[in-house]
Amino acid sequence: MYEGKMAEENINCPEDFYTQALKILNKSGLPFLVGGSYAVMDYTGIKRETNDFDIFCKPGDYLQILDLFKHAEFKTEISDPRWLAKAFFNKSVVDLIFGTAQGVVPIDDTWFETPYPAEILGQKVRLVPPEEIIWSKAYRQDRYRYDGPDINHMFLKKGDSLDWKRLLTRMEAHWEILFAHILNFRFVYPSEKHIVPGWLMAELIRRLTYQLSSPIPKEKITRGLLLAIDPYKIDVEEWGYKSIT
């Protein structure tokens, strides 16, 4: 367990805050993964400014990690008990992610099976696997947050080594979303469309072909809430649609 208080005089910028958080996590011995902009930067080389730092952990560990941050005098909150807690220093934020609001992307032991070591801010860490980055970002399709460009860049830079079968397995129930992102990638990068394996395109096209001739559901249903809650509330609350997963 981490011991001692955080010395505010040692925090001069967001990177200092994130480094302190990583030191606490490494010393704790609890499993965690770095995601978000820092992971995307490591995988793709794209660097961008950010005021948050994404840490992924299992649901059973997040309260213990939050307690460690509290003992280090970080301001903390449980933003959403389904998936998100936060630690703050001034305007900088560490997002402690242990699921998704819709519950569609569970974080379990399988995320930690294949190590992706990296050095972030001078600390040795493990990154969220590229397949899980794509999986978790695929459902972010809000008016104010769409991660399609990140997914395209992950396909572009990591496609040759990506475990496409693993990704398809992750998104099995929602293969149309994967197909949509792949089509978007092919549109953005027509000269790189070969990166997506031919067997995967054939499989997705096969599924779509069968879907075209399948019966239309009698009930008015929507899966929009899996992608963005606020924009699709009206479907359920006023337009008579039933939300399904």
Defining traits:
single chain, 245 residues, alpha/beta, Beta Polymerase, domain 2, 3 domains, 5-stranded mixed beta sheet, two-stranded antiparallel ribbon, 40% helix
What topology does this entry show?
Layout: H1 14-28, E1 33-34, H2 36-44, E2 52-56, H3 62-71, E3 75-80, E4 84-89, E5 92-97, E6 117-120, E7 123-126, H4 130-137, H5 148-158, H6 164-170, H7 175-188, H8 198-212, E8 221-222, H9 229-237, E9 242-243
Parallel strand pairs: 2-5, 8-9
Antiparallel strand pairs: 1-2, 3-4, 4-5, 6-7
Helix pairs in contact: 4-5, 4-6, 5-7
Q: Can you describe this structure?
A:
The protein has 245 residues and is an alpha/beta fold. It folds into 3 domains: 128 residues, 2-Layer Sandwich (Beta Polymerase, domain 2), CATH 3.30.460; 85 residues, no CATH class; 31 residues, no CATH class. It is 40% helix and 15% strand. The protein has 9 helices and 9 strands. The strands form 3 sheets. The chain has a 5-stranded mixed β-sheet. The chain has a two-stranded antiparallel sheet with strand order 6-7. A hairpin with a 2-residue loop joins strand 6 and strand 7. Helix 4 runs parallel beside helix 6 and helix 5 packs across helix 7. The longest helix has 15 residues. It is globular. The two termini are 39 Å apart. 26% of the residues are buried. The model has no long low-confidence stretch (mean pLDDT 93).
